[in-house]
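[09:14] KT: can someone run the structure on this one? pasting the chain below
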Amino acid sequence: MIVREQESLANHTTFRIGGPAAFYLIPEKEEEVKEAIQFAKDRGLPYYLLGKGSNVLFSDSGFDGVVLEIGKGLEQIHIQGTKVTAQAGIPLSVMAMKLAGEELSGFEFAGGIPGTLGGAITMNAGAYGGEIKDCIESAVVLTHQGERVTLSAQELQLGYRTSVIQKKSYLVIEGTFSFKKGEREEILAAMKKMNQSRREKQPLEYPSAGSTFKRPEGYFAGKLIDDAGLRGYRVGDAQVSEKHCGFVVNRGQATSVDVCRLMRDVRDRVKDQFGVELEPEVRIVDSDGKLVTL
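[09:31] RB: done, structure tokens below
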């Protein structure tokens, strides 16, 4: 297992923001994941799970605990007919391409999401009308006590950007899925179309954490922000994207303080003008490992 001290989190997040983690661990097999959790417990430190570093904003002062990167070495995928079991560290883009190669349809929506399977299951990731809950059968998780538990799709309690995994801070080890047979060329064409749309509509030229706010029921966050006159609104180097108002981007040297202030300003303006409360989709983590509310 790789162990680093005072590792910059800005180098491991898609926002490119965050101070150093006291310890940064990269377990490369399931047994090492348990060892990494014990490493944190032995030192009385909080721990945080990281995949590709999307959908998270760390404090400028860093994280006074242990960050576990679930990726390298935990990327195996096993395909048997239409049933698929994949480990938590596999990038969604890689999994989508492997499924397309086996002519399995139902995961095209995830091909352009910049994350790993573990994070996607945890937050029931979705795009273009598809969600993890549409294809998952079960997931294997580790509890805080290190117990290995298999949860059925129903037990996962997958909702809009939420799950029992998130609520109980479980750690995903692997997921089992069921897909439908399809035509390889049709699957690849659908993925290409979605990825092209993503490139055209999303501000991929700047670092961001992905969609900043959850979609309010009956509304679209980006449109509300745009209608509030906040397109391009800026605090320091944090900016509401001029390309897509649902994204906050880092124009260069944005800090966590900049982003949080901007998000509060956006939330307050939208609430004042339209009476709609925007809820962050980005997970804001303080230096003690606690999730921050705006």
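[09:33] KT: thanks! DSSP finds seven helices and 19 strands in the chain.
[09:34] RB: yep, looked fine to me
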